[in-house]
Design goal:
8-stranded mixed sheet; alpha/beta; about 700 residues; TIM Barrel; Spore Coat Polysaccharide Biosynthesis Protein SpsA, Chain A
Length: about 700
């Protein structure tokens, strides 16, 4: 994509363009006979010569085209009055509008080169001059299948204006086989003096021959077109003939047919230029889409999270008629090789202010996880063993063994605050609530990658959950801290292993069954986030691919009626747009950022990027304030946007490839570093050495 952008930038004179113009110089090295001679200068031989156009012959020349607006009108006018002309085309315009070049040739006009990027060649090296001519010829070959021997330097006028700087260029292009064509009458149409003045400027004196300069590109050429409709018939009535240059000079055609490899190189060039324009147009649309999605998401998050916060923090707020919820609940802790984490997790639960029973479901661990819990001999803690069958199976085993109607689920590498369970179950005071999402937070946020994830959790997850709560389409109950009504679980068939994101799968299923799913911001759980790029990659790859699986699994909700249909037509599109489409398109922001920084407009590009960053920083700061978090980690937000987003993009791209190719992703167990032994501000449990590694992939 970057190559296509650069090609487009080159063809649109955004890359390698040189707008310098040399000031006038002395002319003592220019032969006097050239200065006093005609407008056509031939330096192909040992002795420079010049040629004049015969009397009553006018060679109309049009520079800087072809232009999609004005060139067709000029061609129509020439055709109307049966006149011919020479078009000195630039490679940039010919590459973009090859059909117009073909029309010029088909209608009998002559083509000359005007360089590729229109630089002042007197300021360029011979290598750059060769490049300009070669690329110009390549574009002409691709457009019309011909080469030309006619050339006009940019910013040139009449032959008597040659000086010590421009004359060497004229000599050099002669050695490359070109006739240099200057002018005898400048219409000055580029100044837009009015059609009448253009006609006066372009009319030769006393029947003399002339090479007349006009333009079919580079601005508004309506006056040029208007002038032609009067100029052509008027001078034809005076006996003038409008001919091609070689026709007026009675010389062989300037055109040579291109065949073989050179022809196909030209066609390939024109094709690639067209492709770069098309791809760039698509990228611009994609950028507009991602811009809309980003700002729409920010707007929705700010508005709806404010509504959620105002509602839940209002004095006297209760979740439902059965408040407060005081009944005991069952807490399920699925564990697979969690020997270094499990004690911290269980001891944090023992501090719970709400009555609970704790079930640790050992999923065939080989490191003695179950034995560690049993040796603790803590009251209200049971261990259920099973052969290794995966997290969904472990949770279903725990549900079957739980004694209470409200089921809390958490990960084996997570610790709860004493108030977490009590806050998490309060929404069940509303009999329509089937599941509750808690507030998962990063416990190990003292590293750069931890700080980035901390920002993501606070802003991207918890602010999102406030929004989704208000919209009644919460996509995921985080595995680290979530609660379910047993009735809701039983009605949807319990936890499924159809996807790698069982937490997203079960949440969507509960929505479709007609239950409310809400967010309890005070139910905080502290989880250990991945501390290496490889571990983060593995976790997010599983999340992303699992989310895509869940969206596909529940796709029928789009056409169903009732609660399922409402979730399908509100929740699924929002999840798809904000969690799949938007992250896939997000790198376009950085792609255009790099392009703008390198090739301009640099100032506007930097301003636009910092504008988007400011909006993101504002949303992040708002989220941190809502969560009562310190704002210090936001210092790393700019770096997160530059680096972290690219990683998430590659993860998403890999997930798309896996999904489209029908690949199967295995469960990937993450290694932990044991950084979260207790909630912030609380003492770690005894034997803190038992605290790393293992788990089920982390929280969302």
């Amino acid at each position: 994509m970057m190559a296509m952008l650069m090609l487009r930038g080159y063809v649109h004179s955004e890359i390698l363009a040189d707008y310098r113009i040399r000031s006038e110089a002395a002319a003592d090295t220019v032969p006097q006979k050239i200065l006093d001679g005609g407008p056509v200068v031939d330096t192909r031989g040992a002795t420079p010569t010049s040629l004049d156009v015969p009397d009553h012959r006018i060679v109309l020349t049009f520079d800087d085209g072809p232009d999609p607006k004005w060139t067709p009108e000029v061609l129509d006018m020439l055709k109307k009055h049966r006149a011919h002309a020479v078009f000195f085309i630039t490679g940039t315009m010919a590459s973009r509008y090859p059909d117009l070049v073909r029309r010029m040739v088909d209608e009998g006009h002559e083509i000359g080169l005007h360089t590729f990027n229109h630089p002042d060649l007197s300021l360029q090296s011979k290598k750059r001059i060769d490049w300009e001519l070669t690329q110009n010829q390549l574009a002409l070959a691709g457009a019309a299948g011909i080469r030309t021997s006619l050339f006009r330097p940019p910013y040139s006028s009449s032959a008597d204006a040659l000086d010590n700087a421009s004359w060497p260029v004229t000599q050099y292009v002669g050695t490359r086989g070109y006739l240099t064509v200057f002018t005898t009458a400048d219409s000055e149409d580029w100044q837009r003096p009015g059609a009448a003045q253009i006609i006066r400027n372009a009319t030769p004196e006393k029947g003399k021959g002339a090479i007349v300069l006009m333009h079919d590109s580079g601005g508004d050429r309506s006056q040029t077109v208007e002038a032609l409709d009067t100029y052509l018939p008027r001078l034809q009535e005076q006996g003038y003939r409008f001919e091609n240059l070689t026709g007026a000079l009675k010389a062989p055609s300037a055109h040579t047919e291109v065949t073989g490899v050179e022809l196909w190189k030209g066609k390939a060039w024109v094709f690639l230029v067209a492709a770069s324009d098309d791809i760039t147009a698509v990228l611009v649309v994609g950028l507009a889409v991602i811009g809309f999605l980003v700002f729409a998401r920010f707007g929705l998050m700010l508005l709806l999270s404010a509504i959620h916060t105002r509602r839940t923090r209002k004095r006297g707020f209760v979740w439902g008629p059965d408040a407060p919820v005081t009944e005991p609940v069952s807490v399920l802790v699925p564990a697979y090789n969690e020997a270094k984490c499990i004690e911290n997790t269980v001891r944090s639960l023992m501090s719970s202010e709400h009555p609970i029973e704790i079930l640790v479901i050992d999923d065939g661990s080989s490191d003695g996880t179950a034995r560690i819990v049993e040796d603790l001999a803590l009251p209200g803690v049971r261990v259920v063993r099973q052969l290794n069958a995966g997290k969904p199976a472990a949770l279903n085993r725990g549900i079957a063994n739980a004694r209470h109607d409200i089921i809390v689920m958490m990960d084996g590498d997570t610790v709860f605050e004493p108030s977490t369970v009590g806050e998490l179950v309060q929404p069940f005071a509303d009999p329509q609530v089937g599941a509750v999402a808690g507030n998962a937070k990063v416990g190990n946020k003292n590293t750069l990658i931890g700080a980035w994830q901390h920002i993501e959790y606070v802003m991207g997850f918890n602010l999102d959950r406030r929004m989704y709560d208000v919209l009644r389409c919460m996509p995921t109950i985080p595995g680290a801290v979530g609660a379910f009504r047993r009735t809701a679980l039983n009605r949807v068939g319990g936890m499924s292993d159809d996807t790698l994101a069982e937490d997203t799968d079960i949440t969507m299923a509960i929505h479709r069954d007609g239950w409310k799913v809400v967010y309890a911001e005070k139910a905080r759980a502290w989880t250990e986030a991945p501390e290496s790029v490889q571990q983060l990659w593995s976790q997010r790859y599983r999340w992303c691919y699992g989310t895509m699986q869940a969206i596909w699994k529940h796709r029928r909700a789009l056409v169903e009626r009732g609660p399922s249909g409402r979730f399908g037509r509100v929740g699924l599109p929002l999840v798809s747009l904000f969690m799949v489409v938007a992250p896939l398109l997000a790198p376009l922001i950085d792609l255009f950022l790099v392009y703008g920084l390198l090739f301009g407009p640099t100032g506007k590009t930097i301003a636009a990027w910092f504008g988007v960053l400011a909006v993101q920083a504002g949303c992040a700061a708002y989220a941190f304030v809502l969560d009562r978090e310190r704002l210090t980690p936001l210092i790393s937000l700019p770096l997160q946007q530059l680096l972290y987003r690219q990683l998430m993009y590659i993860v998403l791209l890999q997930s798309w490839i896996t999904a489209l190719t029908g690949g199967r992703l295995r469960w990937q167990k993450l290694r932990r570093m044991g950084q979260v032994a207790a909630p912030p501000g609380e003492s770690a449990p005894a034997e803190p050495g038992r605290a790393t590694a293992g788990a089920d992939g982390g929280a969302r």
